[in-house]
Amino acid sequence: MIKRDFLARSVLLAGLPVATSAQAAPSLSRGPVLLTIGGVAVTKGNRAALDPAFDQMMAKHGVQFDKALGMDAAALYLLPTVQIQPTLEYDGKVHSLSGPLVSTVLEAAGVAPTSSVLVGLRALDGYNVAVSLADIRRYRMIIATHMDGQPLALGGLGPQWAVYDADRLADFKDMPLKQRFGLCPWGVYYIDVKPA
Question: Mean per-residue pLDDT for 136-163?
Fold first, then answer.
C-alpha cells in the first residue's frame, strides 16, 4: 500500500464507523452514494429496493434490484488500491490510474470470488457493458477513482471509471488504441451482478 493512501485511509477511518463482521455490509456511506452494486448475487446491502420515484436515472436506464450496496467516496477509498498505467485512447499518453479492483468492490457487496456471474457496468450516459467475473479478475479491472494523483471528476471520466491496463493484456495490447477500451465505461455509477 502506498504511504499516502494509508494516511488518507487512516484519516477517513477516524471519522467513520467501522463495519464489523456481524454487520451485513459496510455502513460507511456518510456522503453521497457514488456507486451502487445490485443484483441477485449481492448478499450484503445497505439500501432497499430501487424506488422509481426517487431513483430516477436508474429507473430511466432500466435498472432493477431488490437490495443493493451503496458506496460513497470514503467507502471506496477504504478498499485496497491498485495502480495501473495504460496508454489512454483520449490523448495517446500513459496515465496513472488508481482505485480498487472491481472484484474487491464486488466482494464488499457479498459476491463470492468464484461466482459464475455476469457483471454489468453502467455509466451515467447509459452506456452499459457486460463482462464475466472471470474476465474482470483476469483483466485485473479496477474502479479508477484517481488519474495522475487527482480524483476523477464528474463531467470528465469520473467519478469512477471501470478500466484495465490494456497495454499489458494479450487480449487488447495489439488492437488499435481506439478499440482497446470498449469494456471500460467511464462515469460508472451502477454495477449489476447476475447469474451468467
Answer: 97
